[in-house]
Amino acid sequence: MLVETFHTLRDFARLHEIASVLIRFGFGEAVHRLGIHHALEKAGKSLYWKYAEEQAQLSLPARMRRALEEMGPSFIKLGQILSTRVDLLPPEWIEELSHLQRRVPPLPFEALRPQLESDLGGPLDKLFAAFDTRPLAAASIAQVHRARLHSGEDVVVKIRRPSITKTIDADLRLMAKLAKLIEFEFPELDYLRPSEIVRQFGLSIHRELDFVNECRNTDRLAANFRTDPRIVIPRVHWDYVRERVCVMDYIEGIDAMDLDAVRAAGLDQRTLAKVGADAMLKMILLDGFFHADPHHGNLLYLPDHRIAFLDFGMVGRLPELRRHQLVDLLSAIVGRDAQTAADVLLDWAGTVNVDPDLLIADMDNLIDDYHGATLKQLSLTQMLTDLTQLMRQHRLALPPDLTLLFRALITLDGIGKQNDPDFDIFTQAAPFIEKSLKERYDPEKIARSAWRNALHAMDMVATLPTELRRVSRAVQKGALKLNIDLARLDHLGWQVERALGWLSLGLVASALIIASAIVMTVQGGPTLWGLPAFGLLGYVGASAMASWLLVAIWRGTRGKH
User: Fold this and answer.
1) In this structure, is residue 326 part of a structural domain?
2) Hey, what's the signal peptide range on this chain (predicted)?
3) Domain of 136, in residue numbers
4) Are 402 and 319 spatial neighbours (Cβ–Cβ below 8 Å)?
5) Lowest-confidence range among 239-253, 339-353, 480-494, 496-510?
6) pLDDT value at 10 more than 60
7) d(CA 267, CA 407)
8) What is the residue-averaged pLDDT of the chain?
9) Catalytically annotated residue among 87, 171, 278, 293
10) Is 293 a catalytic residue?
């Protein structure tokens, strides 16, 4: 408890900054309802409640995007993660959050030099034959510089911003507290799982902060494409890799957004769309390890219709079961099997309170909208959007690995259609789905799986008598315990305790009033202003208690609005 209090006090300045930004962008009601203002006011920090008029012209998602940008790197990254949650947020929010700035003003190189030289263990002129202090790019977590090794290779040096981890750790503590408050005060948002989103975000951003992890991802993807000359993955120079420094080959290519340059270089855009789609589909359906952020800034087009993938801080992992479920879902939609499609969604969402019959009916309606359409007429983006909208209606949430997958597929579909308006990702995916199914139903693989399951079943049967004896003994001794987790129980207990305190004070005040009235009728004894002194003092005490009680109830009621 003492540690938590210390953290809260330590983070007050950051909390004040965040609350001020939220108020300025029109989220003062949320600040008030969450009770953040009470904590800040008790700490002597005042808040300016004026809502900036110029922000009133912006839509709600636009105001949230602007607020996240002003709150700094952690919240920008959180917004970027939320922009992948197509299962939780409507399209207008996804669209707005996807525009969160990825580039920020660079730091002067002299602010990075001490950290870089300390991490690499020497002065730059001894570590590199040449080093360009002008940044190639700057983002919220790191910035990138071009350099040349003494062995002659041109490389990029990615350097983490100094002290960024302290800011992010403080923000994560505050996010966790805010998530719990949201769950208490906005029960209608429970299906969004705020605490789980913050937990997953914390894991994701810590992985992204560790550049050693990013380099491992790079090497793994390079190994997966070692036999495909069309896909280029930068080589990692491990002698220069540290937690805060990452050094890879510099790759010269055409920005995927610069279509004029693509055409001027004589590259066929349809071929580029096919190569990019084949690469992503292989990652997803066959390897189960994919680039989770394949936007234009992370792609370069090279001669001979090769594509270079960059920046592997955010990757997705799809275990075999997930890949099978994805194939089952696509097959069910094409085969008009609403029952199987609904079962897959329920498997993804876990245990939830949902009407399966209504879900199947809605899924059947969704499938019917695509019935009779040719593959070329189908839009993967529209289909995934419709599917996630159905999940939101039934308060079903995707597992984190699948949110990254859906986002990657939508991005892939968009890039493919930009290069080729007739791009058909379903036709492109068909051979990969077929190969995935062949691997899944390979007799040798089925036999191995059956043998493993048989061994597990035998283990369960062998240990069943022992487990039953333990349960029986626990029942006989009265030692059987059931752990029941009731949501909001602590909060409810605090409210009941406060209400009982108010009730007790009210009873005491009432008793004083009755006793004072009796004393007033008794003759004799000391008097004040001609009235019995003890009766008069009882009335004064009861009035003070009643006044205090009314003020406390008023303040508590106002804090809920």
Assistant:
1) yes
2) none
3) 102-165+203-250
4) no
5) 480-494
6) no
7) 27
8) 78
9) 293
10) yes
